[in-house]
């Protein structure tokens, strides 16, 4: 695995974020409300199975503690639909956080109200309080002004470090910023620096690898990147819509009929822009997606009726990997096949290794691709793995996220 010699974004943060950041607030002795994304996976015993999201917020929490703030943390967990539901309590997060911080984390049984206010009133500098699940109140997802105001009344400053929730217009993400000076936390800043900064001013050659099930899920990303990248690699289910649009048969592979025209339009635009465009040349096919079903390796032009492509083949992995050789920046979003099943995981893992080996700034968009690089055992060799699925796609689409837009503007020096 290559050692990363270039694992910092080279784009100054002020070029891509004109908002206050946590370091610009004077938080000593102040109550700081940090919106985190502690939406962690839990098993049936309510044990946290992956605490990555908690760990990624530690820089902001540690900083606030060291600065002598009274640190009030808030998050959502799951979808309790505006009602108290013990299965979605943040109590396990409080415990894990306590262990990670090595100091007491006070846990409040609610996120607003007189009881919480009395706990906050007793906090001392450096104390850490975690509020109960914001989504136990219907006002959170409705962006209710009264609820936002009640949250804001607990604090002097607001910091948003919940990148994974930044695309949501919710009370703790958007509404609350009306009442408090509001800044980005370190994780939020890093996400913007990498995802937005890279697309804004990439070191070239700049290669985008796109995969996953559908073209329709990546329309905005394709449209935004089409005149910014040097190479585009498309794998996964979405590749077969492109191949079909070029006039080839793809058997029973996933094809979105309503996306055929769009796929051809994007391909032509890429050609016009002199962007090199790569599609799978071979595929692993099966008649059904069931485990144990017979598989075959064929060239992509030879997928028979009744068979569907569920992974890219070794020749495609080689072709794509060669295309990554000279890359200086790589963004990867979406698996190359149905990697959840062993029989169709090799393409995705092969590309994960090639991305990890590249002497490039490598950025992985959240969700499935994050899981794939972890499963492939190469996550440590990736420059940056986004913590937000939907939010990272939105940034790659060039959209402004509501949770970032709502923060306080930085004054020009
Ligand atoms: P997305 O959320 O659009 O990134 O899609 C991720 C999903 O795409 C994963 O669950 C994969 O199993 C699925 N996927 C990848 N390749 C294929 C394929 N060739 N056919 C069907 N589904 C696929």
Please tell me about this protein's structure.
- By secondary structure, the protein is an alpha/beta fold.
- It folds into two domains: 22-185, Rossmann fold; 194-396, Phosphoglycerate kinase, N-terminal domain (Rossmann fold).
- The chain has 16 helices and 15 strands.
- The protein has helices at residues 13-16, 52-55, 58-66, 91-101, 114-121, 138-141, 145-152, 186-200, 219-225, 239-245, 260-272, 314-324, 346-357, 368-375, 390-396, 402-405, and strands spanning 31-35, 70-74, 106-107, 128-130, 157-160, 182-184, 206-210, 231-234, 276-278, 282-286, 295-299, 308-312, 329-333, 361-364, 384-385.
- The strands form three sheets. A six-stranded parallel sheet has the order 3-4-2-1-5-6.
- Strand 10 and strand 11 form a beta hairpin.
- Helix 10 crosses helix 11 and helix 12 (314-324) runs parallel beside helix 13.
- The radius of gyration is 23 Å and the shape is elongated.
- It starts with 12 loop residues before the first helix and ends in an 8-residue tail after the last helix.
- Mean pLDDT is 95; it is low at 1-7.
- Residues 212-214, 217, 236-237, 254, 309-310, 334-335, 337-338, 340, 368 line the site of adenosine monophosphate (AMP).
